[in-house]
Amino acid sequence: MPIYEAPIRDFKFALNEFLNIGQYQGKLAGYEDLTLVDPILDESARFCQEILFPINQSGDEEGLKYDNGKVILPKGFKEAYQSYCEMGWGSLTFSQEYGGQGLPNVLNMPVTEMICSSNLSFGLLPGLTHGAISALNEYASEELKQKFMPKMVSGQWSGVMCLTEPQAGTDLGLMTTRAEPQADGSYLITGNKIFISYGEHDASENIIHLILARLPDAPEGIKGISLFVLPRNKVNDDGSVGENNGVSCGSIEHKMGIHASPTCVMNYDKAEGWLVGEPHKGMRAMFVLMNEARILVGLQGLGIAEVAYQNALAYAKERPQGRSLRGAKFPQKKADPITVHPDVRRMLLTQRSFTEGARILSIWAALNMDIRHHHPDKEVKDNADDWIQLMTPIIKAYMTDGGSEVANLGMQIHGGYGFIKEYGMEQYVRDVRITQIYEGTNGIQALDLVGRKLSAHMGRYLRAFTHPCNDFIEENRDNEAMADLTKQLYAGLKSLQQASLWIGQKGMSNPDEAAGASVDYLRLFSIVVIGYIWARSAKIALDALAAGSDEKVFYETKIATAKFFLNKVLPEHYSLLAKITAGVKYLDIPDVDD
Ligand SMILES: Cc1cc2nc3c(=O)[nH]c(=O)nc-3n(C[C@H](O)[C@H](O)[C@H](O)COP(=O)(O)OP(=O)(O)OC[C@H]3O[C@@H](n4cnc5c(N)ncnc54)[C@H](O)[C@@H]3O)c2cc1C
What we know:
Elements: H1 8-18, H2 37-52, H3 56-62, E1 65-67, E2 70-72, H4 77-86, H5 105-118, H6 120-139, H7 142-153, E3 157-162, E4 178-181, E5 187-197, E6 206-213, E7 226-231, E8 233-235, E9 241-244, E10 247-252, E11 263-276, H8 282-318, H9 342-374, H10 378-413, H11 425-433, H12 442-453, H13 460-475, H14 483-509, H15 511-546, H16 552-569, H17 572-582, H18 590-593
Parallel strand pairs: 3-6
Antiparallel strand pairs: 1-2, 4-5, 5-11, 6-7, 7-11, 8-9, 10-11
Flavin-adenine dinucleotide is lined by residues 161-164, 169-170, 195-197, 255, 263, 434, 437-441, 443-444, 447.
């Protein structure tokens, strides 16, 4: 049976030592009472470990039941969702005006990671609801907000996002779902959507659909899409749930992983809905939901990586096979644990350096979201927004590619046992795979990075990262203890700058050059970002040790992991730069182009 223990100490390292969130106390809305941080982390860890984690394997094995339009979640899921709502986990970050608790995103991030580690299938339900509320909050009229948000914030009603149609996946401009305006200002929506996560289920009283559709006068393509909100069941004047609103679930998909999360074919037959935001500008509003969902999906990769790493480490410490090449470490036993083998240590350190680095990146993103929303200084707000714009595709793609790699390494470390269901590794490998595909495939994230983010405002987003990274290298240039790390980081940053320049120049004359290099560029960018995070983490650890901290092993492990990442992972930037600058000419496939 797999194990999971929430990485509380590491969350505190990210929050208190790396990001020093205490500096925002009293300066940023939501940061008034930071004494809440520890109890919230402890309570959510308990909820995840004791309620969500125990139904993860059983949910995968039992799967979902579809019965004439109804979807029944596996045993324990409905009750777990009720506990989730009662404990207020879904309402943490929303405004008190709609029943929320007004707490910062920076706290919600660790909670979400723990949920994803414990039970990814379950995590989609509150995650999508959270995104739907954020989109309503930003774009819906006050009347619609009052109608839907309080019950979504409490969790009584869940939320879904409905974009995909059979012929319209990445290319949403091809969608055909229609919206007919009515005299009373509402719309009747008709069409079919596929792959809708939690489009139907039995855990919440009502399901609120944020759906993309076309108005009768809509222009062709992506510029003719509008966003609507519609409830599965109509809402009576007193707020109670009424009759079905022409929304039905035609079937559910049978899939590789996340077996406890329903992926639904949804039919809309003149369902009554309301416009959210402006006509034909639905993508703009939907992007609020999608950008939040992209960060959530990144966290899904991270959550699975953490639990896969924990299990791989526990297994490796206990599994005796072979002897250390430097002589038996435990001569009194018949074999040494596999942790003595350099290749196993390489796999464990690859897992660990990804997981702890990506954790800081995700919580840093949450801090910047809080700053973007609440900081009084416009310049500070704008800088935070630049950082988020730049990092969103990186968080989504790098953290899900990494989640998949780390889950696979977890299986590898388990040897043959990793392939056996009981040990849990194969479920993690299956469950995490979808994170590289949905919410915009990772290839599309890479295009977003080179096409929109790199070129925006003459490279301003790019500078939101490169300037602080360069400053850090300069500040530590004469620090002997950091020399090994800053030298590697400097080389990585140079490769990133060269690659950015190459893509910027070549992409102008031939956009295929930028597109062909995009996935390698996203990986190059990501490892330099994580390299910077590790170099800064090592500096914090060195300072803590110099100040006589009694957590010697914790900080020494941080330094060792930083050294591993910067010397054994980051140098990949050399080969990535070579691959990028080799150009698109090597992507010709004569017999495909025939
Ligand atoms: C389990 C699951 C849950 C999902 N949940 C939801 C949900 O809740 N709501 C929802 O609306 N959708 C959902 N989806 C749909 C998901 O977001 C899409 O499957 C995804 O966006 C990819 O679309 P597609 O499957 O049509 O692939 P396609 O768009 O056909 O892509 C196929 C391949 O071509 C590449 N490609 C396509 N276009 C381009 C391009 N312009 N440039 C470069 N490469 C390109 C892609 O990267 C991919 O590798 C879900 C899907 C699954 C499987």
